[in-house]
Amino acid sequence: MLRLAIQKSGRLSEDSLKLIRECGISFITSSLKLKTESTNFPLEILYLRDDDIPGYVADGVADIGIVGENVLVEEGMQRLAVEQLGFSKCRLSLAVPKGDSYEHISDLQGKNIATSYPKLLQTYLDEKGVDANIHTISGSVEIAPSIGLADAICDIVSSGSTLISNGLREVERVFSSQAVLIANEGLDAEKRRVLDKLLFRIHAVQRAQKAKYILLNAPNEKIEEISQLLPGAKSPSILPLAEKGWSSLHSVVNEDDFWEIIEKLKEAGAQGILVVPIEKMIV
Ligand code: PRT
Ligand code: ZN
Q: Where is the ATP phosphoribosyltransferase catalytic domain (predicted)?
């Protein structure tokens, strides 16, 4: 039985649970529960505050966990990282009041900066050779300049709307973050085996998220040209259509290349193009 720690309630919770479910792991959730056991996989889920997750995993109270890289690195626990998970993407940024003149990081020399991430900020300032006073506060960092507590802030940004609504301007990106899977360093062979099984499923889910299944019809004389445009897992599957001289081509395309490929396919004579999501992808 592997013990997984995830955030009880917050920005990581929903996507963490979604990933586990997409791996075909069933469990019953209740907002009152502190832990649940899967009904079809040797996994127990512990619900914790995100800040506690690296420590619990390092101590072996939990075997693995899902946490933001910002928290993991701030707590000095990068060594536990196993795999980036691609969700809860955000950045830790420096911001100053909108009206302040700011041109270069050296403008923060000797200034007061409020943050909940003193270590990440200190590392960044050291790299840049800037000496500033860091004020560690645990919440509502964005209001610090307006109440006279600081000249600048260093906080998590995702859409940027919190900064704008507090009259602040993002000036430097200190750290880029996303959710990461972490694991205790001393897992026994049995737990390691379950983790490998889980990772196999996570990879299948992640691969599928980036890929689309594409089906299209093409005149036979265009098959070669169109096949060149479809990278696919290997090469496209080609099936004859009832209509003479036409075939159906099936393949897999990457989401990032998707629109460009579609346009080229149409230009090459493809018709009836269907693009459908893929649930799992094993290679
Ligand atoms: O209660 P618990 O301690 O478990 O949760 P928490 O309140 O400490 O964390 P939570 O749920 O806010 O965030 C968990 C993790 O989500 C963070 O550690 C980040 O890795 C990630 N994440 C992604 C974010 C954001 N996006 C985010 N936007 N964490 C915080 N924010 C906050 C930010 O602090 C600021 O107040 O959202 C505001 C900015 O958002 P925008 O969209 O206005 O820019
Ligand atoms: Zn927290």
A: 49-203
What is the number of the ligand closest to the CA of 7?
Answer: 1
Q: What's this model's pTM, rounded to 2 decimal places?
A: 0.91
pLDDT score at 255: 82
> Which amino acid is residue 54, in one-letter code?
P
**Protein residues within 5 Å, CB atom, of ion ligand 2:** 50-51
Domain architecture of the chain: domains with CATH: 2-88+179-208 (3.40.190.10), 90-177 (3.40.190.10), 211-277 (3.30.70.120)
Residue 240, exposed/middle/buried by CB under 10 A (0-12, 13-18, 19+)?
A: exposed
Q: Is the dihedral of CA 47, 52, 54, 55 positive or negative?
A: negative
Nearest partner of 3 among 66, 50, 49, judged by Cα: 66
Q: What is the CA radius of gyration of the chain?
A: 24
Rounded distance from Cα 281 to ligand 2 centre (Å)? 33
Atom of ligand 1 nearest to the CA of 51: 3
Residues 18-75 have pLDDT tens digits of 999 999 999 987 767 899 999 999 999 999 999 999 999 999 999 999 999 999 999 9
Q: Is the CB of 51 under 6 A from ligand 1?
A: yes
Nearest Cα to Cα of residue 53 among 156, 175, 182? 182
| Ligand 1 neighbour 66 (Cβ under 6 A) | no
140 lines ligand 1 (CB under 6 A): no
